Amino acid sequence: MLMLLVMKNNFRGLLALLLMSQVFAFSNSPQKNGKASISKFHANSIVRKISSTTLFDKWDDLDDEDDELGDPLWRGPPIPRDMKYNEFNLKRQYKNFNAIRGIGGPEMTNDLYARDPDTDVFWFCGKVARISDVSVEMCVARQYPLIEEHSARLRPRELFDKNGLLELWVAPGDSEMDVAYNRPTVQLKKMLRAHETEGADDVKNSEVGFQGEIYEGGEEGFRTQRTEDGMPLKPEIVSPEGP
């Protein structure tokens, strides 16, 4: 038992280091032309192609131990096994994101922002994708624990202490420039957790995807200041080239 706990603690430390390195340095997949609609039939076909990786027995043991002991830093509801923050789950949801976006395009995606509810700063933390049978609310709710912890690790100084209490907000897919210029046409929308979202627990992990933001080369990270209803806190920025 003692050895297993040591293994688990060492692995968590390694995973945190991996996030800051290039193990999770995923690149955006190129957009493809196609219908902005993906059915569950397509999703099942996709997951058969991308699910060749298997989970190692030792990883299963660590997850079982985590289920028994619980995470003393975690303050939220129980986390589904397939949405715990580990490399396997991150890679699977990243592959799902690319597959869904490749068929449906940006219309099937949304930009994600994480917020400490005690501040007005919204940090860009990645993107989600979903098939047409799944709403954006269900998509985020199903993956909430994975997205939240990624956000907390991405911005440890600002967000890690609020892991389990963070808010997640969405904007239309690929709308970063509109958000950066504080254009009033883009309003962020607050998402809820799975136990607060009807139908979220019935969504298969193959029907949704998550592409986490990463920083390279000393990037500071993209943030925006917003009101409680998701509107820009500051006036619109008008570029010299026009809107």
TrEMBL record:
Disordered: region residues: 214-243
Compositionally biased region (Basic and acidic residues): 220-231
Stretch forming the signal peptide: 1-25
Keyword set, alphabetical order: Signal
Superkingdom of origin organism: Eukaryota
Name the UniProt record assigns to this protein: Uncharacterized protein
Organism: Chaetoceros tenuissimus
Taxonomic path: Eukaryota, Sar, Stramenopiles, Ochrophyta, Bacillariophyta
